[in-house]
Amino acid sequence: MLTQEDAERAARKAVMNYSAAAARDVSERALAGGLDLISLITNGYTAGIKEIGRQYDRREIMLPQLMAAGSAMKAGVDILTPHLGNPSDGSMLGRFVICTIEGDIHSIGKDICAALLQAAGFSVVNLGRDVRVKFIVDAVEDDGAVAVGTSALMTSTMVNQRRLEEMMADRGLKGKVVTNVGGGPVTQDWADEIGADVFSENAEDCVRKMRAALGEKGNGAAPAGTPSDENVINNSGTTH
Question: What gap in Å lies between CA 131 and CA 133, rounded to an integer?
Answer without folding.
Answer: 6
